[in-house]
Amino acid sequence: MVSPKGEISKEVADAAKMCFQCGTCTAGCPSGRRTSYRVRKIVRMAQLGLKEEIINSDELWECSTCYTCVERCPRQVPIVDIIIDLRNIAVAEGHMRPQHKGTATNLVKYGHTVDVKDNISKLRVELGLPEVPPTVLANEAAKADLDKILKATGFCKIVQE
Amino acid sequence: MAKYAFFLGCIAPLRYPGIEKSTREVCAALGIELVDLKDASCCPAPGVIRAFNKKTWLAAAARNLALAEQQGLPIVTICNGCYGSLFDAAHELAEDPELLAEVNKILAEIGMEYKGTTKVHHFAEVLYNEVGVEKIKAAVKKPLDYQVAAFYGCHFLKPSEIKQVDNPENPHILDDLIEATGAKSMPRKQKTLCCGAGGGLKAAFGDVAKKFTETNLENMKASGAQFIIDVCPFCHLQFDGVQKDLGYNIPVLHLSQLLGLAMGMDEKQLAFSTHITPVKL
C-alpha cells in the first residue's frame, strides 16, 4: 500500500521505469489534446525523481483517469496508478484544490460525495423510494463506522488542513 | 432468480432518483432481485477520493465489499465510478493477501472483516450477460423508435485487462441493449471519448471537462442522435449539466430510464423533472 511520506515510492518509481518514452500515452490522451498536460512528461519526471516539480504542477490534476493511455501503452505501464500515487503525495504535502477539499468534506459530512437536497428528498417520497437512501445516511452507527475509517487512515486530517 | 446487493452510490439517489427508481422497476420486470446494500457509503469515488488518499479509498471500499460479503451477495452498481472503485478494490484485495491483511487491521477497528470474496458487477453487464438481449426484447411493451447515442464512459470498460466486459476501443454491448428497445444506436466518431468529468477534472478544471463533453456533443449531433444514453450517473450529470452553456439540448437518459420507458413505466416515475436538459419524448 502506498504511504505518502514525501518521496516517490519505490513502487511508483519501478512502475515508471518500464516506460521507454514512446509517447503513445500522450498521443491518445484526451486531456493532452485540450491542455498542456503531457502524460509522457509526468512519467519521465517520475523516472527522474522530480517530485517537487510534479506535485506543484496543475497538470498532475488534468488527468480524467480515462485509462486510454493504459489501454494503449506497449509497455503495460500502470500510468493511471502512477498519477494517483503522485496525487497522493501532492495531497499529503498540502497541495489540494479548494474544490477537491469540498468533495472530500462532503464525504466526511455525509458519507457521500454530494450533499442532500430537500427537493430531491421530496421527490424520492413521491416516487415511492425511501426519503433517505438506505445508506450511511439512514444509519448513524454505520456513519460512525465510516468516520472511524476516515480517521484511522488520516482522511479527516486532509480536510481540516 | 438472480439476486444482487444493490449499491446506490451518490449521484443517482441524491441527484437523479429516476435512475434509481427505473433500475428497481426494470430489474423486477426482468427477474433480477435487488437487495439494498444497507449502510453502504460512497464507493469511494475513484478519481477524487482515491487520488487524495489511497488508503482511505481502499479501506472504505473494503467496508462496502464486506457488507455485501456478510449477505453472501454479489454487488450490482448503476454507476461507472462505483463500478471502477469497487471492482478495482475487490480485484486488488483478492490478488494481494498482504494488502487484504493490512486493510483488515483497519476494518477490525469497527468490528468487521473482509475475506476477499465479493464479486462486483455493473447493471449493463448483468443485463447483457445474465438476462440477455432476447429476454429484454420480450419485456418491451412500448417499442421506441428514437435515434440515440450510446455513451459507455470509461470505468465501465477500462482497465480492460481486469474488467473484460467488452472491447474497450470498439464496444457493442450497450448498443445491443439499446437496440433491444427498438431504438437505433447511431454510429459516430470517437465513441469511447471520456465525458470529461472523471479524475476530479469536473471539480478542479470544469472548463477543460466541458471541452471533452463538447467534442462528444458535436459527434453525437452529427450522428443524428435525439437522446444520449449513458450507464453512469456522473457522465449523466456532466452531459445533462453543461449542454445549455454549450448551446446543445440533447436529452440525457440512463440506460435504466430508457429501458423503463420501453417497458411502459410512467414518465413521472422516471423523474425527468430533475434533469437540467429538458427531456421531451
Any overview of this molecule?
- The complex is a heterodimer of chains A (about 160) and B (about 280).
- Chain A has about 160 residues and is mostly helical.
- Chain A folds into 2 domains: about 10-90, Fumarate Reductase Iron-sulfur Protein, Chain B, domain 2, CATH 1.10.1060.10; about 100-160, no CATH class.
- Chain A has 10 helices and no strands.
- Chain A has helices at about 10-15, 25-30, 40-45, 50-55, 70, 80-90, 100-110, 120-125, 140-150, 155-160.
- In chain A, helix 1 packs across helix 3 (about 40-45) and helix 3 (about 40-45) crosses helix 6 (about 80-90).
- The two termini of chain A are about 25 Å apart.
- Chain B has about 280 residues and is of the alpha/beta class.
- In chain B, helix 4 packs across helix 6.
- In chain B, the strands form 2 sheets. In chain B, strands 2-1-3-4 form a 4-stranded parallel β-sheet, with helices on both faces.
- Chain B is about 50% helix and about 10% strand.
- Chain B folds into 2 domains: about 1-120, Glutathione S-transferase Yfyf (Class Pi), Chain A, domain 2 (Up-down Bundle), CATH 1.20.1050; about 140-275, 3-Layer(aba) Sandwich (Rossmann fold).
- The model of chain B has no long low-confidence stretch (mean pLDDT about 95).
- Chains A and B meet through helix 5, helix 6, helix 7, helix 8 and helix 9 of A and helix 1, helix 2, helix 3, helix 4 and helix 6 of B.
